[in-house]
Specification:
The complex is a heterotrimer. Chain A has three helices and one strand; from the N terminus they run αααβ. By secondary structure, chain A is an all-alpha fold. Chain B is mainly alpha-helical. Chain B has one domain. Chain B contains four helices and no strands. In chain B, helix 2 packs antiparallel against helix 3. Chain B is elongated, with a radius of gyration of 17 Å. By secondary structure, chain C is mainly α. Chain C has two domains: 47 residues, no CATH class; 102 residues, no CATH class. Classes of the chains: A mainly alpha, B mainly alpha, C mainly alpha.
């Protein structure tokens, strides 16, 4: 039983390390700011999630596990806020995203191109 | 095991710092700074386990809250050039 | 309606007190009493600031959360794996797409949940919100088409409607 928990936490922490590095590699490889935010969110979700679950298994049942889960919840709720604020600020500053296709006008009459998504 | 995780986080930190140095826009640097913050929290947690002192988690939680506020404050500053910006005031003027 | 507000305040106080207990780790009578007092003071402050409302502490959504979060986590894992494959692919096969999706949720909490869920899944970010139109940036074209087909929208509406 102890061995199973040990192996499981090893696997989870290795997976977490893998996704953490993948997110950081994406941060360097991606061509523009919007795509970089996508890459960084891999670190924020799967990387952090697996690392914390692995540590939870190591810590056993107790306050430490609870605090780790608080940390996970914190990432879950603040991650999207930061990503959204960044993306909105970029579009507002008229940074042109690298686009393969702009489908903003696909289901309604096309409005101005400089739509930054803010309410008037 | 925790040493492996710490090494992986350090590699990721190095990559994030590379992005912060290369830029090119200020938003890339903000994003990199936010990633560095996230990775620093994970490093704190892992090092806490490595040295058998899980109290580091409290520091990590605090740092997480500061990271959010810091990133938003920097974004707001670069967008308006002012931290005490009033949206209603813009609408009135 | 009065009873609902009272239940909301009590639940908020309970959550805050439980949070305090979890972070403290010391359980002497004086400290626990101090924690209870600070929870009550926080609730009073929240009432005064008018954040203890259906937006600030949506207890109506509690049961929906139990089925919604596991589904969301599975979605996150799936799309994060997709982004991982793209990042590690030698030729970086991205096709960034901007699109507009319509949120069919009735309340602001529902729309906010939908927008946050889109952002939380790697590969799609909500860039802007105007009314119920969400501008979404997707890393690959398929991600945008997936959102336009409205699977997640229906799931969030279901979550919101499970009062």
């Amino acid at each position: 039983m102890m061995l199973a928990v040990e192996v499981a936490s090893w696997v989870l922490i290795l997976l977490g390390s893998f996704f953490t590095i993948v997110g950081a590699v994406g941060l360097v490889r991606m061509p523009d700011i919007f795509t970089r935010i996508h890459a960084a969110s891999v670190t924020d979700t799967l990387g952090v999630g697996f690392l914390i679950l692995g540590m939870c298994l190591q810590a056993g049942f107790g306050l430490v596990t609870l605090k780790l889960l608080f940390l996970l919840a914190l990432f879950f709720f603040t991650g999207p806020v930061v990503a959204h604020a960044l993306a909105q600020a970029c579009l507002h500053e008229k940074i042109k995203p690298v686009l393969a296709e702009d489908r903003r006008g696909h289901d309604r009459p096309r409005q101005s191109n400089e739509d930054d998504g803010r309410q008037p | 095991m925790f040493a492996t995780a710490a090494a992986a986080i350090l590699v990721a930190l190095a990559l994030a710092v590379t992005r912060a140095i290369k830029g090119p826009t200020v938003f890339d640097r903000v994003l990199a700074g936010n990633s560095v913050g996230t990775l620093a929290i994970m490093l704190l947690a892992v090092v806490g386990f490595l040295t058998g002192r899980p109290e580091f988690l409290d520091i990590g939680l605090t740092y997480g809250l500061l990271n959010l506020i810091g990133t938003l404050a920097v974004l707001k500053f670069f967008r308006h050039g002012d931290l005490a910006y009033d949206v209603d005031e813009e609408a009135r003027s | 309606m009065r009873g609902m507000a009272m239940r909301r305040y009590l639940s908020l106080a309970g959550f805050l007190f439980a949070f305090w207990l979890a972070l403290s780790g010391h359980y002497t009578p004086v400290l626990v009493a101090a924690g209870a007092a600070s929870a009550v003071i926080c609730v009073l402050a929240a009432i005064r600031m008018r954040v203890a409302d259906p937006e600030g502490h949506p207890i109506e959504l509690f049961w929906g959360t139990i089925t919604y979060f596991p589904w969301l986590i599975r979605e996150i894992a799936k799309s994060a794996w997709g982004v991982t494959k793209i990042v590690l692919h030698p030729s970086l096969p991205i096709s960034p797409t901007l699109t507009v999706v319509r949120a069919s949720q009735k309340t602001t909490v529902g729309v906010a949940t939908y927008a946050n869920s889109i952002t939380l899944t790697p590969g799609t970010i909500t860039v802007g919100v105007s009314g119920k139109n969400l501008t979404v940036h997707a890393l690959v074209r398929d991600g945008a088409l997936d959102l336009e087909s409205g699977g997640m929208d229906r799931r969030v509406s279901q979550f919101e409607g499970s009062v």
